[in-house]
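Review form for a predicted model. The reviewer records the input and the model, then writes brief findings.
Reviewer: anonymous (R2)
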Amino acid sequence: NNGLLTFPSGTYVVGNVDYSGVRVSVFGYGATIICTGTNGAFYKTDHGNKLTVKGITFTGATTGRAINHQSAQEINAQDELDINSCSFDMGSGIYGIYSVGTREARIQNCTFFNTLAGNGVYFKDSVSPFINNCTFRGGGYLGRGIYYPGTGTAFDAGLIVTDSEIMGWDKGIEVVGCDWLVIKGCTIDYCNQSTKIADQDGANISNNYFGSVGNTAGLWIAYDGAGLAPNYSDKIIIVNNTFTGHELVGSLYDCILIDGVVSPDNLQIKDNVISFYTRYGINFTTTKRIDISGNNFSQRSGAGVAPIYNSTGAGDSLVRIV
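Model under review:
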């Protein structure tokens, strides 16, 4: 317990190492670990014992996982996972970091690749995970960068993504059923779907760059019936971002799309730069309370229908557009 394990520079083949029940730091600057175990090269199933991993390169061409923490929901645990200065390139459909039931995971200064069709980071039942200063360097529009498929419980809460770059994935960030979300200071671009949030209770999305590729929106706010009622997104603040569409005439896309069979509520979209869309800058086909003000719009030359499409009617007392 409270031990330090060091991998010298070199390449290692690792199956499954269980760190449950111990507090340990694993360092490996210059070391590469080839992951072959489905449980995870490093995995744990308990609470209260922090796992720290720094400086290691993880790769796995098959179903081998890298870092895997799966535990039952816990109220009192804290500061359980600290991953710093590592890189991940996993096999098809496999996540570099898989976190279920973790409280206060810290993932910083890491790089995620998908040259082997893998994924980046997965969360569920994880309270207050932080991703800071990470690079998700995709290629071929494969896999997910960050995925949080929550169900709206109190244990799906507080994802913070700051100062990171996410490019070249199928889905950059996808968050469902999470109580509070922050995306700040990030570049999310050249993904089939840059960012999608659904069944989201509270979010601050600010000072980012969002790109649209193909016929998908840079930011999609949607409904998800799999979460707990009321299923719609609520209390979303979108401010001081830049939205840019990259496709030329022929692909109809919006920079921001807001839709769902149940209307989102309490949205503020303010002081953003929204440009080069070929359909609408902001497209909300259904909504309750929404405030759109102070934004700068510029459609792509020769395309674009209108800055804002509002099927609920601009005269609706709950809709404010300035």
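Findings: The radius of gyration is 20 Å.
Further findings: The mean pLDDT is 88.
Recommendation: see findings above.
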